[in-house]
Amino acid sequence: MQYQVNAMGKPCPIPVVETKKVLAQMTAGDTVTVSVDNAIAVQNLLKMAGQKKLAAESRTLASDHYEVVLALTEESLAAAQTPIAEEAPACIPDARAKGTVVVLSSDEMGSGDPVLGKALMKAFVYALTEQDILPDTILLYNGGAKLSVEGAPTLADLKLLESQGVEIMTCGTCLNHYGLTEKLAVGSVTNMYAIAEKLMGAARVVRP
Q1: Which of 80, 113, 129 is the last residue before a domain boundary?
Q2: pLDDT band for position 96 (50/70/90)?
Q3: What is the DSSP code (8-state) at residue 37?
Q4: Is the pLDDT of residue 81 over 60?
């Protein structure tokens, strides 16, 4: 069977996420053609194909139109069904990585262009919702406190993560500093003692 994914105009990581969802429905011999509008998306899709041992090819149709064709082979199907030692955390019943804390200390990801930084942070939080293994806790402080309030572009994804058991904790001092105390819309208010305790007890801290 041949599948189609139209990811034109969709930012990272949506092309990869939507393609993975289609791959989950495919059987050996099926193909999926993914349409994207930039070369970076092509590279991301080809990298995923390599990781999953998929047959893959790309073609350029125009300066802003590319296609990536992925084929599910018997080899890739077998690889997907083979247990890998490093994937042991997948056995956690509630699908969370125990002791993993994600720290969001800004409403921007990286430094440079603020508009790009905000878009990257939104994409990162969305990408967290699509992970097979979720973090145990997300800490939001300083500018990161803006991500968990009413009207934040990341609010829906943070609510989804919370519904799946992820603890969302936002610094109360930070909310107060930005005048957002009454607008917290997901998770709970926390303090610096609790933040320090979470970080000191974390098995792994992720800072995008």
Answers
A1: 80
A2: low
A3: S
A4: no
